[in-house]
Amino acid sequence: MEKRKFKHFSFEDLVKIEFLLQNNKSIRYIAKQLNVSPSTVSREIKRNLNEYGIYEANLAITKRRKRYYHRYYFRFVELGKYEEFSRIFALKYDKKVHGVKATYFYIAENFPNIKRPSLKTVFNWIKTDKWVIVRSNRLRQYYKKGGKRTRNAVQRLVPAGYVKPIWARDKSIDSRQDFGHWELDLVVGKKVSGHDSILTLVERKTRKLFAKKVRNKNP
């Protein structure tokens, strides 16, 4: 029987992969059972491991749905729902003094009743170069040339173990019921070169703010 070069696995296929892996079957053996190439099985497993490095069929199907959703989420028809959000975003956004995250949360705080997408969706819109803000409107966050900077300023100023991106934090944190969850940001002066910046820490429950002046973005 001729092997199919590529296929979208059904949920039954995913369950079979999980079962065979639990029984210590090789990727080549699994590929033969599913009539696909070993590379197809290997790719499926690598893309859908859980945090412990174990393949789970339920997790695999959930990840697939999320990938599909975000890939096709950007539609101009969808933007009609967020017309007011887009208008305010375009007016408030300034890549030097009021970046994407700052603008997003400014709108969330000051216009709580308008419909707004998730922050991750906003970044996806920007990547399409078809929204009110495009990639060229953003300050570059990383430097690749010459193997220099590979982290943004906040990541260099604060150890990575203490920080999670907003989209990765637990949903329970959004309720602001528990003390001890902090938001971190860097306020860069309008004239960046030779001017100090301000590193801010805000406790989500109490809204207590700490600000620290930093001489530059290189700790």
TrEMBL record:
<dbReference type="InterPro" id="IPR051917">
    <property type="entry name" value="Transposase-Integrase"/>
</dbReference>
<keyword id="KW-0233">DNA recombination</keyword>
<dbReference type="Pfam" id="PF13936">
    <property type="entry name" value="HTH_38"/>
</dbReference>
<protein>
    <submittedName>
        <fullName>IS30 family transposase</fullName>
    </submittedName>
</protein>
<dbReference type="InterPro" id="IPR053392">
    <property type="entry name" value="Transposase_IS30-like"/>
</dbReference>
<dbReference type="GO" id="GO:0032196">
    <property type="term" value="P:transposition"/>
</dbReference>
<dbReference type="InterPro" id="IPR025246">
    <property type="entry name" value="IS30-like_HTH"/>
</dbReference>
<dbReference type="GO" id="GO:0004803">
    <property type="term" value="F:transposase activity"/>
</dbReference>
<dbReference type="GO" id="GO:0006310">
    <property type="term" value="P:DNA recombination"/>
</dbReference>
<dbReference type="GO" id="GO:0005829">
    <property type="term" value="C:cytosol"/>
</dbReference>
<feature type="domain" description="Transposase IS30-like HTH">
    <location>
        <begin position="5"/>
        <end position="48"/>
    </location>
</feature>
